[in-house]
Design the sequence.
DNA sequence: AGTACCACCTGACGGC
DNA sequence: TGCCGTCAGGTGGTAC
């Protein structure tokens, strides 16, 4: 699940459950999700500390410790968080487990092991090093246009490029392009000012709507493509049947009538 | 700069 | 029922 809206939901969840409590113990159940930090390094860095605040940038979640260090969480394709009391409630694919002094636990769950848990010195340094683009929710139209202007690629690939905009993935790029009525392979260079303006509007509208609904595609409005994102389904506008195609190396769903190619 | 393909993993699903 | 290919909301490397 984890694209920008999911990450925002994870951030709020962590904020409302896991801040300001001593971390008594950290257990690494799969070292594969660790970045550069070792198992011992993670334990030494976290045990006896507290989580004090969080920051989200695109698909990355940064958790500030009470000694100034930062925990970095990236959720890959299948990652998530669960805060719980009883051991039996642990999610199936718990990879890292934080034990708080109040007896509660926070699990970093990730079936496919593409997620990452790491310790870093400073989020801004990390963002600069990875050359991550700006978070689309932080961008006004001028800045948004500035990020896209001069690009030669397809619009779906561009929206999903984390070095251009940070946070949009395969699912939400499909939704944004449906709302903006753009075919996923439309060349960015062909978009005029009005098209860019509309794309910016739809990007913000889609991401905010998803966050408001807890990033649960099941409760999105019926007017959203995501409620109909299967080949042959009716387009929510009643204009045709949803088709799939390839764009940016991923499967893209779209309505050929609403989003004509070319 | 942009794209296509592969790899990293686990699991669900459809076809036979 | 069981096996097999394919695909899945991410990212990084390589090659063209």
Sequence:
């Amino acid at each position: 699940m984890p694209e920008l809206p999911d990450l925002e939901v994870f951030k709020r969840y962590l904020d409302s459950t896991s801040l300001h409590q001593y971390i008594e113990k950290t257990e690494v159940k799969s070292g594969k999700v660790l970045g550069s930090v070792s198992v011992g390094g993670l334990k030494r860095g976290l045990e006896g500390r507290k989580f004090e605040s969080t920051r989200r940038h695109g698909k990355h979640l940064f958790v500030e410790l009470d000694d100034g260090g930062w925990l970095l969480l990236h959720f890959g394709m299948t990652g998530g968080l669960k805060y719980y009391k009883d051991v039996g409630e642990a999610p199936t694919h718990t990879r890292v487990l934080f034990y708080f002094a109040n007896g509660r636990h926070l699990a970093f769950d990730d079936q496919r092991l593409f997620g990452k848990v790491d310790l870093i010195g400073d989020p801004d340094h990390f963002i600069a090093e990875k050359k991550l683009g700006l978070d689309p929710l932080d961008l006004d139209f001028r800045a948004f246009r500035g990020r896209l202007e001069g690009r030669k690629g397809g619009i779906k690939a561009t929206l999903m490029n984390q070095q251009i905009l940070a946070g949009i993935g395969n699912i939400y790029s499909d939704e944004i392009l449906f709302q903006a009525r753009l075919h996923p392979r439309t060349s960015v260079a062909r978009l005029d000012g009005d098209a860019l303006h509309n794309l910016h509007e739809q990007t913000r509208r889609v991401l905010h709507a998803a966050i408001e609904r807890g990033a649960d595609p099941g409760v999105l409005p019926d007017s959203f493509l995501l409620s109909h994102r299967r080949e042959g389904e009716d387009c929510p506008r009643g204009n045709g049947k949803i088709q799939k195609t390839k764009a940016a190396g991923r499967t893209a769903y779209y309505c050929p009538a609403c989003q004509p190619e070319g």
Chain A has seven helices and ten strands. The helical segments of chain A are 4-17, 39-46, 123-129, 141-148, 155-160, 170-179, 193-212. Residues 4-129 of chain A form a domain with the N-terminal domain of MutM-like DNA repair proteins fold (CATH 3.20.190.10). Chain A has two domains: 4-129, 136-254.
